[in-house]
Design a protein that fits this description.
heterodimer, A: mainly alpha, two-stranded antiparallel sheet, 6 helices, 71% helix, globular, B: alpha+beta, six-stranded antiparallel barrel, 7 helices, 41% helix
Chain lengths: 170, 326
């Protein structure tokens, strides 16, 4: 997966309105979909949006701040403490931008691997924060973790194809 | 890999290295350039250069520290920061309410379209009539199903003896371990925090946050939820706590108490939130522990597919206010 040296490096941008509309829509659907389809609670659309834009922008600062913003908005939808999703998503945004510099993520396999790794990292970071902060944290379920990684990675590959159509070269 | 990384670093986006270089090196025109004795960077300059070089990392650290500070304030004071929640939920709730209305409309239209698709297969006119009738029947069937649900709610509302307000579930919380839902009634309908929320099958949870046109309900399966309960037959008391994954556990039941799978659990009224005698769930597992039994309870209400709920206006004055507003 290391990027070949002769490959031209593409840096993309999207209109800020597109960026924030995608983030808002992800939050709305994240809250609304599980009401209609209970299995949708395993999906994390705002996380996928953070991963996509941090990979696309290749900026650690942007990834960190965007991840923290969307994570805090997700925190606001829960009954839990503000900051748990914020910390996990900020780290994902930073690592996503770092990975976009290190690897060629225009390839399907590269994207899939990095996205899966970031989703896994996000779940583990959240579980770790719950262990530290919640009085009686829920038991760790390996099957849930595997389902979350597989489902979100599969959805990400579709979602990223759609979002690719909205970007333009910087 | 390193060459790829270098190429990106030299791009328009990642210009930190250029900034650092410009900061550290004094750029001079070749005409005016004179031999300059090498300057030894002083302490503050070295620190500044180091921070500039690793700016993204320090920004990440600052963001993480800020959020850890926010978390520590909430944990030590045992309170949430409501303002951010108010902003986010106030922004999302109207959209989710509109989405709910739209999806209900689309579901009805989809049935009609499905039937229209069948019309071309046989004789057009007869089939069209037949299809229209079928569509009507399906539509009526869907309405009937909704009516049945609402009738059960209405019956419960009439016979329960508690003043209640019906609400529709319009959203849920992200995260597999967080069990909260958003309903479409808030302070405008007279709702306040800590009011119990029910379904015709049993207790659903209680209101934990109220906004003008929506409210957040903590389901009894959430690890942060609790309720005073007793076993319907034996009258053994305990504390119901959320266990996640759609289940609850019954705490503080002594090992020598007889508890068996199938026992019904009802509210005891001792928590001053839930009225006494409401169905909560059924014991599905009961094992002996060190001192207390490990009892698992399956909630009576179908909490993973809530659509309509009833909020019990436990204070009559609050209920009257709500009715007057309606």
């Amino acid at each position: 997966m290391p990027a070949p040296a002769e490959r031209p490096i593409n840096v993309y941008r999207v209109h800020p309105l597109t960026l924030w509309a995608a983030a808002f829509l992800a939050l709305v659907l994240q809250s609304f979909l599980p009401v209609m389809l209970p299995a949708a609670h395993l999906l994390d659309l705002p996380l996928l949006i953070v991963i996509y834009f941090s990979l696309m922008r290749r900026s650690k600062v942007f990834g960190t701040l965007f991840g923290a913003s969307l994570g805090l908005a997700e925190d606001a939808l829960t009954h839990g403490f503000l900051g748990m999703f914020g910390i996990a998503s900020a780290l994902v945004g930073y690592l996503g931008a770092w990975a976009s510099i290190q690897f060629d993520l225009e390839q399907f396999l590269g994207r899939l691997t990095v996205t899966s790794a970031l989703v896994l990292f996000h779940s583990l970071a959240l579980a770790g924060l719950e262990r530290v902060l919640v009085a009686s944290p829920p038991a760790f379920q390996l099957l849930d973790l595997v389902s979350i990684v597989l489902l979100n990675s599969a959805l990400a590959m579709i979602l990223f194809q759609v979002l690719d159509r909205l970007r333009r070269p910087a | 890999m390193n060459r790829f990384a270098d190429q990106v670093r030299q791009g328009a986006y990642i210009s930190e290295s250029r900034m650092v270089r410009d900061t550290l090196l004094e750029v001079r025109s070749p005409l005016t350039a004179r031999p300059v004795p090498p300057r030894v960077p002083e302490g503050p300059q070295v620190v500044q250069a180091f921070i500039s070089r690793h700016r993204p990392f320090f920004i990440l650290l600052a963001v993480l520290m800020g959020q850890l500070l926010l978390l520590s304030v909430q944990v030590t004071r045992d309170q949430n920061v409501p303002l951010a929640k108010v902003w986010v939920i106030s922004a999302l709730a109207p959209v989710e309410h509109a989405l709910r209305t739209t999806t209900d409309g689309i579901a009805g239209a989809w049935m009609a379209v499905g039937n229209l698709g069948q019309a071309g297969q046989a004789e057009r006119e007869l089939n069209a009539r037949l299809t229209a009738d079928e569509a009507r029947i399906r539509e009526l069937s869907a309405q009937s199903s909704e009516n049945a649900r609402l009738r059960v709610l209405l019956d419960f509302k009439t016979h329960s003896g508690y003043p209640t307000v019906a609400a529709e579930v319009i959203g849920s919380s992200p995260g597999e371990n967080s069990n909260t839902v958003l309903i479409d009634k808030g302070t405008d309908a007279g709702l306040v925090a800590d009011l119990p929320v029910l379904t015709p099958d049993g207790v659903a949870g209680k209101i934990v946050a109220v906004y003008p046109q929506s409210a957040q309900v903590l389901l009894i399966t959430d690890p942060a939820a609790g309720a005073g309960v007793l076993l319907e037959q034996s009258r053994i008391q305990g504390v119901l706590k959320g266990a996640g994954r759609g289940l609850c556990r019954l705490d503080y039941v002594m090992n020598d108490n007889a508890v068996a799978p199938g026992d019904k659990v009802v509210t005891s009224g001792l928590d001053r939130v839930f009225p006494k005698g409401l169905p909560v769930g059924t014991v599905v597992k009961a094992d002996n522990g060190n001192i207390y039994k490990n009892v698992v309870v399956q909630p009576a209400a179908a909490l993973n597919r809530l659509e309509e709920v009833l909020v019990v206006m436990s204070k009559p004055a609050v209920a009257e206010q709500a009715n007057a507003r309606r």
